[in-house]
Amino acid sequence: MIDKQNKDHNQSRRPLSIDGFKPAGRTKSTGSIGFSQGANKSDKSRLLDDFKRSEGFASGTLSGSSSIGVPRRPQYGSSENAKRHYLRFWKNKRGTKLDSFEKKTWRKKRLKIAAIIFFILFAIFAFLVAKGYINLHKVFSGGGGAAALDENVDPSKLRIEGDGRVNILVMGRGGLGHDGADLTDTMILVSIDPVAKEAGLVSIPRDLYVTVPGQGSMKINSVFYTGKAMVLNRTAKRNEQVTKEAEQSGFNLVDKTVEDVLGVPVHYHAMVDFSGFKKAIDTVGGVDINVPAAVYENMRIDGKPYTLNVKPGRKHFGGFEALAYSRSRHTSKRGDFDRAERQRLMIVALKEKILSLGTFANPAKLSSLIDQFGSHVQTNFSTQDVSKLYALGKQIDSSKVKSIGLADPPNNYVTTANIGGLSVVIPTAGVGNYKDIHYYIRNTLRDSFLKMENAKVLVLNGTNRPGLGNDKVYELKSFGYKVLKAANAPTRNYSKTVIVDMGHGDKKYTRHYLENRFKVLSTRNLPDAAIQPAEADFVIILGNDISSG
Predict the structure, then answer these.
(1) CA 63 vs CA 12, 25, 36, 51, 57: distances in Å
(2) Could you tell me whether strands 166-173 and 268-273 are parallel, antiparallel, or unpaired per DSSP bridges?
(3) How far apart are alpha carbons 384 and 379 in whole angstroms?
(4) H or E stretch including 412?
(5) What are the b/e assignments for 298-307, b being 16+ CB within 10 Å?
(6) Residue 163 lies in domain
(7) Are residues 314 and 401 in the same domain?
(8) Quick one: 421 and 464 in the same domain?
(9) 265: burial class by Cβ within 10 Å (0-12, 13-18, 19+)?
């Protein structure tokens, strides 16, 4: 009996099938997993190992009173719907929101992708900005300064008459690869009136014979080269710092020389070589000029023969032809003087094209122009100065830009001459005598604030020196002051000059200039009741402190 029971017990422990359930045919066991009591072989619908049904798990829970409490996995197939049901099943059982998890995973991926794209774009942008910044500051390195560019200018920032304008000395040189690479064969003073919104272009003859203190006499186109040589000849080194110092020495010397010749301050300078000029013209798409007279010349440009043949009338110039037109000088009896006039036409045309394109307001166009200029252009503008000049330039119509030549009739202030076998240009008044040139330029380019206030000035000689009043009247008129007359003061014993502001401060710029010129502070009270100021805004009584000046 015992053996029979053990045998039955052992038979009840037969191994399960590979799916973890008892094999088919065990119909007497009431605890068989997946079978209800009384199951038989004919009830094939209840057999878990009946593989005629679809693959997977049937939905529902275990039947029978002896269920062990393990949830029955739902059936799923290979379809996407079945997989979603499966995920939803485990989501409900485990309490995990898998749909949200999937969304979060995809969101993280998108953020990573976006971050990578942003980083790449930022790197490109940073490179372009850095490149533009470097190129920009190669051209606009700062260092000059014109108070007249500011709005509501503080008079104390104006040093002398002429500071009420913005004066820019524009020079052109051959550059590397050209004979006389540092000779400034083009010299034009661009003078801007920020109040009246006008401008003037003054051509300085390249052959003007000048004397440079400590360096001797030479043509003015050699002054920049001479200034550079003053530094380079002191050392054999040729590094970036030495080159920079030499260039600055050249600019300082040429600025000072031009101030002596024209009698007005130079606030900024800009140097462009031939390559930079051509590239600038081409970058803006060329320029258009109303050619006043035919120009024909066989010449050499960049070491190659070239025939320039320009007819009168409207003409479009590309960079190469513009350079040839600006350099041509053997086409008329006036030679260099006519060439200077063509150069002034070219500057106005370039200004018009740049402004019409909105170049300085368009970062892409400005970057392109700066890239083309690169090392071909040197200035002492700051980027802020350029921004102000651009805003000012847009307000100046080309019809309000004067073309000024020192040999243009009836203003013949220079002439040709021969000194020691050298063909030169000299002042009509004589070598080194720039008095008439000063008068002409200062009045043609009258200080903006003197012109705006147009104050009337009465000059009285308070000394016993004859002619002192007339001398000072001429000097003041040369700067653009509106002088009523010169006369003797009722008494002639003034030790110091007196300036009386009869307008009580309403013409602050004129007062500031006069105080700087005579080195005294103004008063509002006449020192002598016998003085009759009439309509004068300022009365100047000359004293012995300037009698020797």
Answers:
(1) 20, 18, 7, 19, 14
(2) parallel
(3) 13
(4) strand 411-412
(5) eeebeeeeee
(6) 147-444
(7) yes
(8) no
(9) middle
* Residue among 163, 219, 191, 145 at smallest CA distance from 347: 191
The length of the chain in residues reads 549
Question: What is the reported pTM?
Answer: 0.69
Q: How far is CA 400 from the centre of its chain?
A: 25
Residue with tokens 């700062």: 142
DSSP state of 206: T
Spatial separation of the C-alpha atoms in residues 79 and 442, rounded to whole Å: 94
Stretch (H or E) spanning 511:
helix 508-518
Find the CATH number of the domain harbouring 433: 3.40.630.190
- The one-character DSSP state at 28 is S
Q: Are residues 421 and 462 in the same domain?
A: no
Q: Residue 9 falls within a domain, yes or no?
A: no
Q: How many CB atoms lie within 10 A of CB 537?
A: 22
How far CA 215 is from CA of 224, 230, 422, in Å, comes to 12, 9, 18
Separation of alpha carbons 267 and 380, rounded Å: 9
- Answer whether residue 358 is part of any domain: yes
515 with 371, same domain: the answer is no
Q: 416, 444, 472 — which closes off a domain?
A: 444
Q: Are both 439 and 458 inside the same structural domain?
A: no
Segments in 358-467 forming alpha helices (H): 363-373, 383-393, 435-444, 448-453
Residue 6's CB is within 10 A of a number of other CB atoms, namely: 10
Does 413 share its domain with 475?
Answer: no
Q: How many domains does the chain have?
A: 2
d(CA 351, CA 319): 15
Residue 331 lies inside a defined structural domain of this protein: yes
Q: Pick from 83, 75, 81, 36: which is nearest to 54 by CA?
A: 75
Cα distances (angstroms) measured from residue 295 to each of 201, 225, 313: 22, 30, 12
Last residue of a domain, one of 444, 476, 502: 444
Q: Alpha helix locations (H) across 273-335?
A: 274-283, 319-327
Let me know if residue 372 belongs to a domain.
yes
Query: What are the pLDDT tens digits along the chain (549 aa)?
Result: 445 444 454 444 444 443 444 444 444 444 444 434 444 444 444 434 444 444 444 444 444 444 444 445 455 455 556 655 555 555 554 444 445 556 566 666 666 666 665 555 544 444 444 444 445 455 555 555 788 988 889 999 999 999 999 999 988 887 766 677 889 988 989 999 999 999 999 989 999 999 998 899 999 999 999 999 999 998 888 888 898 899 999 999 999 999 999 999 999 998 888 888 888 888 888 999 999 888 888 888 777 888 999 999 999 999 889 888 888 876 666 667 787 888 888 888 887 787 776 655 555 555 566 665 556 778 888 878 877 887 888 888 888 888 898 988 889 999 999 999 999 999 999 999 999 999 999 999 999 999 999 999 999 999 999 999 999 999 999 999 999 999 999 999 999 999 999 987 899 999 999 999 999 999 999 999 999 998 999 999 999 998 554
**Same domain, residue pair 223 and 303:** yes
Is 378 in the same domain as 406?
yes
